[in-house]
Specification:
about 350 residues; mainly alpha; MetI-like fold
């Protein structure tokens, strides 16, 4: 009997013909990188951008690639920071801008979130508000400025209403989309367990949609922070906001103040975004891998409110009807009943 021919051993390192080609680690798709490496690449991008800025503005004004009237150098820009801080009241103007954004965007959230919840829950309500949503999301924001001037004047109320009109359609539509994306299996399960319509909305749809709603609000807040630059074209008083500083510097100078404000705005917006992202992680740790500090606090407050509301508005239980007392008189005997 002929012994079987020995087959060559296949190396374990030989890739399968159906497997994807090996890739280098630096170019791997969707690879999770350490935090220090992400910070390093971000810092490298900033250094390269500042290096390009310094290169095109290097040397004497007449020998530069870009002249001083077009773009000042990084050193010339930083040298004007003290005048921006003291002469232009940088702190007060920054706080004024932030206060306007908080009021306008907060009003948009107060109005837009309930309307979005109603539209995400009820198709007829969504069809009714669809024209307003499409109009608000597609109208040019700059076109709202003369309209708000004519309706609300040029004071603080105009800036708040400008931000409200510019933001409420996005808040409204994103909230409705977050509610609509919840699967019907959650609604069917709630109805099977005996929940009514109000309980399905409050205890099923809203908790499931709130992580997406909060994430949308965090991103839209940065958009509203950019809109306020347009709303501060015309101001009353010496505290006009960061947008007012840019407009005045364009007309009177110095141009370094424009660049400084353009650098300060992203830094302030980034700080606020990181603060909101921390709150987002702590409110929804099951979604964004946080510690859940705010989540547990909100649960405690919610349960306390339910206990207080139940104690204050508890329906009185109707008293039971009185039971008939048994008679203490003994029944007549058989002999007595026969004689009668």
């Amino acid at each position: 009997m002929t012994p079987p021919t020995a087959q060559p051993a296949t190396s374990a390192a030989t890739p399968s013909p159906l497997a994807p080609p090996p890739q280098r680690r630096f170019l791997a798709l969707r690879e999770d990188i350490p935090q220090w490496e992400g910070l390093f690449h971000g810092a490298l991008c900033i250094v390269l951008c500042v290096g390009v800025w310094g290169f095109v503005t290097w040397g004497e004004p007449e020998q530069r690639i870009l002249s001083y009237t077009v773009l000042p150098s990084p050193g010339e820009t930083l040298a004007e920071f003290s005048s921006l801080w003291f002469d232009r009241a940088l702190t007060r103007n920054t706080l004024a801008t932030l206060w306007r954004v908080v009021l306008g965007f907060g009003l948009a959230a107060i109005v837009g979130i309930p309307l979005g919840v109603l539209c995400g829950c009820f198709s007829r309500v969504q069809a009714f508000f669809a024209p307003l949503s499409i109009f608000g999301r597609n109208i040019p924001v700059a076109a709202l400025i003369p309209l708000t001037f004519s309706l609300f004047g040029i004071g603080e109320f105009q800036k708040v209403m400008f931000l409200f009109i510019a933001s409420v359609a996005f808040v409204f539509s994103d909230t409705a989309r977050a509610i609509s994306d919840i699967g019907n299996q959650y609604i069917d399960t709630a109805y099977t367990l005996g929940a009514n319509r109000r309980q399905v909305i409050i205890k099923v749809l809203l908790p499931l949609a709130m992580p997406s709603v909060f994430n949308s609000l965090r991103l839209l807040f940065g958009l509203a922070f950019g809109y306020i630059m347009l709303g501060e074209l015309v101001t009353i008083g010496d505290v006009g906001g960061l947008g007012h500083i840019i407009n005045v510097s364009m007309r009177r100078g110095p141009r370094e103040h424009i660049l400084l404000v353009l650098l300060i705005i992203p830094l302030v917006a980034l700080a606020i975004d990181r603060l909101l992202f921390w709150g987002q992680r702590e409110l929804f740790p099951y979604r964004y891998k946080g510690n859940g500090i705010l989540h547990h606090g909100m649960q405690t407050l919610f349960h306390a409110w339910e206990d207080i509301a139940g104690a204050l508005w508890r329906r009185p239980v109707p008293p039971l009807p009185p039971r008939s007392q048994p008679s203490t008189t003994p029944p007549p005997s058989h002999h007595e009943s026969k004689q009668s």
